[in-house]
Automatic annotation (TrEMBL):
<dbReference type="Pfam" id="PF09923">
    <property type="entry name" value="DUF2155"/>
</dbReference>
<keyword id="KW-0732">Signal</keyword>
<protein>
    <recommendedName>
        <fullName>DUF2155 domain-containing protein</fullName>
    </recommendedName>
</protein>
<feature type="signal peptide">
    <location>
        <begin position="1"/>
        <end position="23"/>
    </location>
</feature>
<dbReference type="InterPro" id="IPR019225">
    <property type="entry name" value="DUF2155"/>
</dbReference>
């Protein structure tokens, strides 16, 4: 069995959903809410970030590039473009879209932290 890279699998899933990706219209929120779980301490932190803003939680630095949601339905779902760095490691441990309704679809693989997209902030 041939295994597709994660990004290709996400594209295939989006194209296979009802109406297809081309029919899905999206709007851009002014920011978004991100949830961080420290699996060692059990501490949960919710971050409210504006598009282009970054914040630190524990050993993570999280930057929200953009938050999108279905047109006319801000509560329907959220897609957040995130770049996440761990301590002083120069390469991001995660960079890409996280989907609020399917957090395992494109999850950050880290032994200590879990990160989820929750929702977009609307004007």
């Amino acid at each position: 069995m041939i295994r597709l890279p994660r990004a290709l699998a996400i594209v295939a899933l989006c194209l296979g959903t009802a109406g297809g990706a081309a029919a899905q219209q999206a709007e851009t929120g002014t920011g978004g809410t991100i949830r961080v779980l420290d699996k060692i301490t059990g501490q949960v932190t919710d971050l409210e970030l504006a598009n282009g803003e970054a914040a630190s939680v524990g050993h993570l630095s999280i930057a929200l590039g953009e938050c999108r949601y279905p047109a006319g339905n801000a509560a329907g779902d959220a897609w957040e473009w995130l770049t996440i760095f761990y301590q002083a490691v120069p390469d991001p441990v995660f960079q890409g879209w996280m989907v609020a309704s399917a957090p395992a679809l494109n999850a950050m693989d880290h032994p200590r932290y879990d990160v989820w997209a929750l929702r977009c902030t609307t004007p």
